[in-house]
Amino acid sequence: MRLSVGFEVDYLGSNCLHVTGRCVLCVALVVSAQTACRNAVEPTPVGYDGEWIGMTAQGTPVRFSVSGNAVTSISIAYNFSPACTGTLSYTNLAAEIHTLDPPGPPPFDQPGFGYSTTDGMQGTLIAGHFSADRRSASGQFTLVRYGACETVVSNWTANRR
């Protein structure tokens, strides 16, 4: 059995178009496939593993690595003033990614991490949380009585590479 829906258009006495049902179906499938591919949404990544790169509110770089559900390294450059500039770099970390219990209000209802240092006189605090789609993260870092910086706070954002 052959299904064929056809028509002919006679333009100035010549047959210039003959379309069958099969051809129309093929064209419709190709157009649909191209539209679907152009509008496709990537699946949500599993876990948080990978490199995360972004910027602080001052436009300085922030970078951290995640492996095995923990932040393993963090680097944040800061530039609050000519006397308060530098880079915080921490490696060989195991800052666990977890959800607060009970969860806080959005965005603190999403999994996050925290890391702090102190020598009794000065310290740093870095905290962050991940977006629900696991493609971005944001947070805050604080320098407490940190040399010429005194105490300063800044926000940061990052995206998974």
Q: Over all CA atoms, what is the radius of gyration?
A: 28 Å
Number of strands: 11
The 3D shape can be described as globular
Low-pLDDT segments, ≥5 res:
7-11, 13-21, 23-33
Secondary-structure element order, N to C: EEHEEEEEEEEE
Mean pLDDT: 82
Separate helix tally: 1
- In whole angstroms, how far apart are the ends? 54 Å
Oligomeric status of the shown chains?
Answer: single chain
Structural class label: mainly beta
Estimate the strand proportion: over 45%
What does this structure look like?
This protein is mainly β and 161 residues long. Helix content is 11%, strand content 49%. It is built from one helix and eleven strands; from the N terminus they run ββαβββββββββ. It has one helix at 21-38, and strands at 7-11, 14-19, 50-56, 61-67, 70-81, 84-90, 95-96, 112-118, 123-130, 136-144, 152-160. The strands form two sheets. Strands 3, 4, 5, 6, 7, 8, 9, 10 and 11 form a nine-stranded antiparallel beta sheet that branches. The relative contact order is 0.16.
